[in-house]
Amino acid sequence: MSAIDPRQELAERLGLSEIPPARFDSPGDVATRLRASDYLTDDSIASVCFLADRLAKPVLVEGPAGTGKTALAQAVAKATGARLIRLQCYEGLDESKALYEWNYRKQLLRIQAGRPEGEGTEEWKALEEDIFAEEFLLTRPLLEAIRAREPVVLLIDEIDRVELETEALLLEILSEYQVSIPELGTVRATQIPMVFLTSNNTRELSEALKRRCLYLFVGYPDLERERDIILNRVPGISLNLAEQIARVVRSLRSLDLKKAPSVAETLDWARTLVVLGKSEIGDQDAAATLHILLKYQSDIEKATKELLGRVKPLA
What is the pTM of this model? Predict the structure, then answer.
């Protein structure tokens, strides 16, 4: 008995003429192609991305801010040659900004141009059907991803910022890859987008949302991976300086800080030191540039007091 291909099953439900080709051949292929797109992955990230493609399931990516969650979706889009469609979530986001809305101005002009002379029900019904046609529909990111003809990576960024009511709007898309529009009916995907949802874990997401997704936690990288990220993303930096930076940042994250330095801030610090012509980090260099890594004065003072004496060049 042959195993059921989830992509084939989904393609049949959507009425697609053929099964979309797989994006990746293996987790190793994911890692190789993401590296070529300047994203250094690890085994768990590569495996989840591979399974998300083969199982046609969205990925919920949680972790601290600045650990590369958004960059992962961007790198997957680049690696696969897909169009990236991004929905940036925020408090107050509603259906009209996430899914679709009607072009009310254009509808009003159409009503004025075609206003029936009489008040008959038939005339008004015909006009109403006319103004709720495709040409009056304004697509927003979620519907745009569903309707796109080309391969798409849909990034729903910082989903934990929206209210539960708005989160519920996503359930139909994440499970069936379709959108119900009362005036037009059900709009089904013409291809199967690869979907990433990111969360900084500022609030608990619903069980219904989590059930529909594969789960991936992206934390701070270990010392070796962060060193490699620095070497990969900062031109002209030496191995010695990259190693020192990774060690200092790792030590800073072990302190009780209001905000630990993110990977993005690590890269900013590395670029700063390269621009300043530093080949290694001394106490004065670290003290003069800590504001690149830390964004609270209390954290800077704590790091200066407890950490800087440990910064030594590598042998």
Answer: 0.84
